[in-house]
Structures are given as C-alpha cells and as structure tokens.
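Side project, low priority. Logging it here so it doesn't get lost.
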Amino acid sequence: MKFTIQRESLIKPLQMVSGVVERRQTLPILSNILVKIADNQLLMTATDLEVEMSIQMILPDQAKIQSGEITIPARKFMDICRALPDGVNIEISIDADRAVVKAGKSRFVLSTLAADDFPGIDANKDILEFSVPQKEFKQAIERTQFAMAHQDVRYYLNGMLFEMGTNALRLVATDGHRLALCDQAFESKQKENQQVIIPRKGIVEIARLLEDTDAPVSIQLGTNYIRVITDSVSFTSKLIDGRFPDYQNVLPDGGDKIIICEKNELKQALSRASILSNEKYRGVRLQFSSGLLRIFAHNPEQEEAEEELTIDYNGSNLEIGFNVTYLMDAVSACTTDNVSLSLSDANSCCLIQPEGTSGCKYVVMPMRL
C-alpha cells in the first residue's frame, strides 16, 4: 500500500476519525485506524465497538497510489500530521509490518496491525431510512443535547431519544432535573411512532460531522443501530437498549403565569447572579411581580447578588428557585429575541420556549432554597 496526500487535505478528516478512538482500550487494535486504498480512494475508519466512523476521500491522480489496507496508531499518526509544516505532501507506505510516513526531510516509522483483525459494528438490515437537511438536523441536536445525563446509573438517560412519527422527528433529552425537546419536520411514510435512544458519544459525534449546509444527510435506523451518511462520511452508533421515560407527563400543561423576557437581558442577568451562587447547588431565587423580575443568589460565604430586569408580566406575585445553570442552558438554546416562561405556582416546573414558536420546549424543575 502506498499513497501521497497534502497535509491540509488529510488533517480535518483524520481529526474527525481519531475523535472516535478512546485513549484507554481493551483491545490494542481499537487504538488504531483502518487505512484502506482502492480505486484512487482513501478510506479511514475508527471504532470503539459502540460507534464507528468512516471517511472517504478521492486521491489526486499523481498520488503514487498502490492499493492495500492496514491499521496504524491513531493518536501518533494524528500528532505527526499536526506537527508537520503547512503545505507539505505526506507519503504513507507499508514496509513489511511497519508504516512509513515521509514528509519533506522528516521520516517516521509506525507499528501496524493487520487490517483483517479490525472489528466492525454489525449493522443489520435497515428498518427506516429518511433524509433531512444537515443544517436543520445539526441545530435540532445542538438545541437539545445539553440536557442529556452524564454517567447516570439510569443508563437510558445518558443519550437522546429520537422519536419518528408521521413527517416529524422529535429529539428529547433529560437528566431527571430538566428536559429539552425539539421537533424536526421530514418526509416520511411512517405510519406509527418509533422510538430509539442514541448514546451520548453517538450524539456528540453526529453533531460534529454535520455541516451548516442545506445538503441532505441520510439517516438509517435498524433494530440495534443508527447510521448517518453524508457525501463523504458514514457514522454508525449502537443504540441504548432501554425504555425512555414518558416525557409527555413531564411537559407542564396550562401554566397560567406567562412571562415574556428579552433573551439576552435575562441570560446576562442570570450569568452575573450565578457568580455568587452556591458552587455545588447553583441555586438562584426568582421573584416575579407586575412588570419586574428580581433574581437573587447567595453562597455559604454570605456573599449575595441581586439583579433586576423589566419583563412583560401582569400576574400575581410569585417566588421560585431554580438551578441557574439549567435556566441559562435553556434560555441560550432559544433562537428568538424574546423567551416565554410559563409557571403555575411556586412548586411547579418552568416551561421555557422561544416566543411565538412551538418547535422547541425546555422544562426545568424547581429547587427549594
């Protein structure tokens, strides 16, 4: 196997593929990436047995190509390519059981493992396939993923729910204290709802590979995996085998206290108040009165913060506590100039939405302060 490629053409795809590789591996070959040359095309693949990413590139005609395949250490290869100067051509060849990397006056010899031993995710027959614009899909994930749990014993919360219905894809994430929901329209022949849970790492990698373009991304769903395919990238993730909570029961219904706030003003006020909130519990107290919101924070050192901002609210006085980080995450995810907060009483969840739209909803549980 032998090929030549310009450093700048290799760096970004190599970074994306290397991102899948875990630093600590049970199998040595999982620290490697599979490099395959066939028909003037370079294919690089990495996996940790839970997710798998492949990137395909067309090599220039003068690239001194010899077909073949081998696996090489991902981190070392990535570090070598990063350290090389801009604009240099990199030549990779196989000498016995070693990979030789040459660039300018530099030469590196890397250990290899046989390509035949490289594992792949067993992706069974597709049950459902559909396409959505990359930009819209990426935005839907970014507006939802922050609410996923992190290393929760309730393993089904350490991921995101994809619910496919008739011409709609709904993304839902929750860690038990807050919930984020975003709807995405797509053309489908789906007649009944189908739910799958994609693990956190799969969601992070999908968001990373999607671009801000209207070009379509193809999504294939099987019984135990999801595959996302763009022009040059194929990403596969196993699904979480579990039952997602009934999120419909969490969505507040009929909150009679509706507050409209200017998004950036609210976000900045919460950010300033958070500086003096308790580092562990992150609690802030919100006092709503006609036309006015006051935000209070304090910590064990007896330090205090107080913020005031004008709001559109004509209801009765209300005082309620929340985790300030959860509030800021939800407000930041809204894309309109104003945000709407819906509450029932001092013990109710807060429903946060972009004003005038119903595509995204955020629920934050109250705190006792």
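Brief comment: The mean pLDDT is 93.
Revisit when time allows.
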